[in-house]
Amino acid sequence: LTYHFVVELFPTEVRNTGMAITFNVAFAVFGGAAPVIALESAEASWLGPGVFYMLAGVLGTVSLLLCFYLERTGKIELAHVRKDPYYGPLGCDRRRPAKKVV
User: Model's pTM, two decimal places?
Assistant: First the structure.
């Protein structure tokens, strides 16, 4: 769900580049620092890395809710939103009937 939402934040001309840079920077910052922070927090408190992971989840949730709020108030505009998914159950396109397999 997160990837589908983040992709819609970029215009189609720079969508691939924007998504790649966003993903790689976030992965480098949080993925690279996570073991060090987890180790230090385990030594500092009996709660250990649970607090770090909980804060990361809260940060992600707040970011997602903020994006929804900004989109509703008109401060940002999503490039493209479909009400129906491209593909229905079993990978068939809803606009064309599925072929029967005998």
Answer: 0.50
